[in-house]
Amino acid sequence: MEKHVKISEPYTVAFKVKKKRWSSLSAALLKAFAISLLLGFAYGISIFVLGTNIALFPIIGVLVVSYVYNSNYQGEQINIYVRPVLGLICALQIIVGFLICELFYSEIALYPIYIYLIAREYIGYTLGNPVDQALPIFLSVVCFAYGAFQDYAFRLQKIIKRPFMRKWGSYYYKKEGHIVSIFLIDPLQYDDNEKNRLIAYITEGCYIEKNKNKINAFYLPKENIDEAKISIQNDSITKIKDNNYYKIDLGSNGTLYRYAAPCSLIMDDKQNVLVMEIEI
After folding, report:
1. Could you state, in order of their start, the residue ranges of all structural domains in the chain?
2. What is the mean pLDDT of residues 91-110?
């Protein structure tokens, strides 16, 4: 859905609103639990029918479970109490898979008491014979670790990458082709996969200060930004041709040009600018 907001001529700010992510934690965990049960059932049948354990099945399964969870819930930060629960849900498919296989091999009626007895016997056997059951134990640990520590791994990647990001003035940035992304917040706090975002396209009225291919500053029309109720964490205001501009100071001096391409402002749901994307 796109909403175009007409502001002072000749400028237009276009908002592209991404669909909000359903933020119910309990619903996300229940969906992940249900998917893990179904995947475990399918995994158990595959072992019984094929007569072999294809370890790739639960690996794919844990990716599916994590995707279902992340598609239905996005917390503001890593929850140290929830992530172990998700890890157990990811590992659940392994336990269910081997129990289903044992039930098929035993050829008994699927009464709750029989399922309970076989489950107890199988778990006791696994704990008492870890060497013989090394594969399911290993797969369970891998699935649990992925579910429990996935976000920590992504954050660690960001921590490792940040010192190698280029920095202009007070701002980190990355360049992909002709697109430059300037972070107005700490890159560690920005989630590329977050769907609950607003994107504003400023089609006219900006200025860019650069020296060859190096950007030295970028100017956003203050009146138009304020009229669109966009919030920029920037106290540097510069006057150009009797108009006030928010200045994104990237250091040193260059030649001032009128910026011809659209400028994209990626914002949170309160219209606070997180990242600017410009083309050079």
Report:
1. 2-18+165-279, 25-162
2. 82
